Amino acid sequence: MPLPLIVGIAVRVGIAAAGKIIAKRAATAAAKKAAEAAAKKAAEEAAKKAAAQGLGRQAGTAATRDAAKKAAEQSLKKSGGKGPGNTVGKHKAKKGKKDPCKHKRDKEKKKYVVYKADEFDKNGKKIGTYVGRTSGKPGERVADILKRRQAGHHRNVGPLQEVFTTDSYAAVRGAEHLARAKYSTVDQINPVGPNNPRKDDYLDCAKSKGAS
Hints:
50% of the residues lie in helices and 13% in strands. By secondary structure, it is α+β, with helices and mostly antiparallel strands. The N and C termini lie far apart (82 Å).
């Protein structure tokens, strides 16, 4: 078989093998076109090199096929399957940054309030400052929400003082945690436990809304 024909067959075999990879992985027409061009170039160069080295038809075709497949894979990897010139091309698309304030309980539509208050022992002696959170209806006054909470409080506390108000559940969780660290001087559990998977979200959300 004439050498040019052998080279031509090897190139076609290489391009066909690469085409299967490209068809599965190319996400855009641009990526497909770039990979096909790379595969063709690699196949032609490999086939000519095999012929120059005196490789037989079978060995030359195998080498050409491998070169074309490798070139296609490298092209697709470089473009992330998106093709050159695409801003997402050189890197895989990144998911949008998660909103730390998003929480399913926001559907409840409430006004949340973080408060602090003096706490007293049974003899009326102040023993420290307590921090907590409560909630009310969206249009309800903060003063009314705090007054109601104080009336049914489980601790012996004085008037509740507003520290932070929000309509975000995530924000009030984070703000209460920050306020406890800042104001509380009595024994009480952490508003957000150390193993809570959303602890960072709550703190980030609270800070984004002005809590400190």
